[in-house]
Amino acid sequence: MAGNNNADPRHLETLDRDLGRLSNLEQATSFAARPIVGGGIALVFIALAGLAAALFFGQSSNTLLVTVAAAFGAYMALNIGANDVANNMGPAVGAKALSMGGAILIAAIFESAGALLAGGDVVKTIAKGIIDPQSLGTTEVFIWAMMAALLASALWVNLATWVGAPVSTTHSVVGGVMGAGIAAAGFGAVSWGTMSTIAASWVISPVLGGLIAAGFLWFIKVKIVYQDDKIAAARKWVPVLVGIMAGAFASYLAIKGLKKIIKIDLQTALMIGVAAGLIIWAATIPLIKKQSEGLENRNKSLKVLFGIPLVVSAALLSFAHGANDVANAVGPLAAIVQASGSGDFLAAVSIPFWVMIIGAFGISFGLFLFGPKLIKMVGDQITKLNPMRAYCVALSAAITVIIASWLGLPVSSTHIAVGGVFGVGFFREWYTERRIKQARMAMPTRKQYSREERRRRKLVRRSHFLTIAAAWVITVPATATISGLLFLLLNSFSS
């Protein structure tokens, strides 16, 4: 009988508890090890980028400088992948049109393709004309300034990712170059006209993105969601919205994503967009009709019709982002490579292919290793998104960039996309409050919510709104300060 003691229920309970503790310990160990593994892989990539730079640049007196600069550029590219790419994929993940793994895979492919196939091959002015290179005097001072700008912007984006704030990597680089320029040559080295235009874009781009996203959501609600026959309305208007998306992205890619292949002016890009929009609209009509067959007349059915267009729009945004924003990582690095090789730091900067590879692979690795945190923030924690709302955000991003290009404003894809998410959320708050008031007027006996309860039911999380807005405002001065200090430190080593 003694041999059956193991069957005692109390013994089994103890065994279950022990196994549960082991399981929890295993999960905790896995969770704690994940950032360590990610950091280790990132360090290996940075080291490989430096090694590749040493091999491609060849033996010279400046090889060590270029190697260190390549490591800084790889670090910046990792941070762009961790922070910036969330703006393209966050809405699709938040709307559950894509899984986290699917979003990371699509973004990595299209970001890399955009960077390598259509990335800008010439930076006409250093960091978009923020400083006058001539004011820096010597090649050595110029190289230290670009090194400081690159490292400062990477450190700032890393910090922003850690606290969960999607910031503009473009503005981070701008602030870094400005701070290094001021430390090297004084305030007169900065093009303050360009800086004032960029400062204006801090307000204009998110507000414009939010208004356009809210406008499309209003259109969808009025023309489709609140119609008696939702499916019939969707068959009519979803192809129109898909055609608008196709036209907007065709123009967007023509303006922002194909600079390396062919130069296209705004008017030609708009004509391309109109033609593409009409073709896709006509092709989508039978597809939507077939997809909508058998769907129930309810809002849940409408989400199905927006799923595929939303995934396609996220992929196209990633391609254009890779083509346009990879220069944030590799522009200063390319300038250092050119100045180190030829000694000429005043000419337009050509970006070597190996430098573009560092930028493209760095963005993909950063997204894979550290991107999920910001993807969840943008897609799920600001306001609740569904495929229709997320589609409005993606469409707004493309249209806002086209409008900004027409106005000549340097805008941030981060500000536009996050502004679109806020615009959708605040519009839903306004629209919901409006419907509650209408219902209250129609039924005075309806239950009344207190002001405190209505505040608790807000559809946009105010804490995230304030955190992100504060991070946007201080990005340029923060990176400028860090960059200026780094320049003084680096320059003191060489003197």
TrEMBL record:
Residues spanning the membrane: 36-58, 64-85, 97-118, 141-161, 173-193, 199-220, 232-255, 261-283, 304-323, 351-370, 390-409, 415-431, 465-490
Stored PANTHER family: PHOSPHATE TRANSPORTER (PTHR11101)
GO BP: phosphate ion transmembrane transport
Subcellular location: Membrane
Membrane topology (UniProt): Multi-pass membrane protein
Any one GO molecular function term: phosphate transmembrane transporter activity
Family label: Belongs to the inorganic phosphate transporter (PiT) (TC 2.A.20) family.
InterPro entries (UniProt xref): Phos_transporter (IPR001204)
Principal subcellular localization: membrane
Descriptive protein name: Phosphate transporter
Keywords carried by this UniProt record: Membrane, Phosphate transport, Transmembrane, Transmembrane helix, Transport
Any GO CC annotation of this UniProt entry: membrane
Pfam families: PHO4
